[in-house]
Design a protein that fits this description.
Elements (H helix, E strand, L loop, with lengths): L3 E7 L4 E8 L2 H18 L7 E5 L17
Antiparallel strand pairs: 1-2, 1-3
Length: 71
């Protein structure tokens, strides 16, 4: 399917996980930012999970989202 995906990596368990799939880039970016704020509020920086955006397979020209980028 052509969905945007927010993925995560649990640095303590060393496991990847899918936060969710979204029909639009806007929805996915909003969830990515929500996850980053939640993780910053609930996890120590040294063990904080990483989260990132994966574009749909159909968009091969998608930009890379830096974790420090402001939305």
């Amino acid at each position: 399917m052509n969905r945007w995906r927010v993925m995560g990596y649990d640095t303590f368990a060393r496991e990847s996980y899918c936060v969710g799939e979204y029909t639009s880039e806007t929805e996915a970016l909003a969830e990515l930012e929500r996850q980053r704020r939640l993780l910053a509020a609930t996890q120590d920086e040294a063990l904080r999970d990483e989260v990132w955006l994966v574009p749909p397979l159909a968009t091969h020209t998608a930009q890379v989202y830096d974790e420090n980028q402001e939305f």
